[in-house]
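JOB MANIFEST
job_type = single_chain_structure
chain_count = 1
residues = 155
[input]
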Amino acid sequence: MSELHVYMSSVNNAVARQNGKGLALLLAIPVGKVPISKSMIQIANRTTVLNPITYCASNIADKEMAGIIGRRLSALASIVQSDWTNAYQHQLGAYNALLDYFKDDASYWIIPALTKVMNDLRLLATQSDIELKRRDNEFLKDASDETHKQFHYGS
């Protein structure tokens, strides 16, 4: 069984059991001091060969979650290629999709995963700013604005 198939199965189990902490671990992006594991590199390499969103739609039972995971896999593939700006854009898409999922589901089990994706978004924004030598922290400001906008929108 491939690493990608095992990953998809783990996502399905976490969602079915409403295991927010488990889903948060599966959504974690290796950024900063976190090394990329061999299995994550294998998954990222496989992701570059296929369309992650289409693949996830075929392998994840919850279709909204499939879009979130597809964006996360796209971010992972960009990280392996050291394309931090593209990784940030994919992570932003995953964050917004996960926030919509949370609004639709309205249960608290997803909060650990949402927190993890939001934190990784901030880390990717910082890395993108470094990559582009942006001293004004354009991506970090964008990530901050996006997270604040979403939380104020709901109030």
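[summary]
Residues 84-105 form the longest helix (22 residues).
The mean pLDDT is 82.
exit_status = 0
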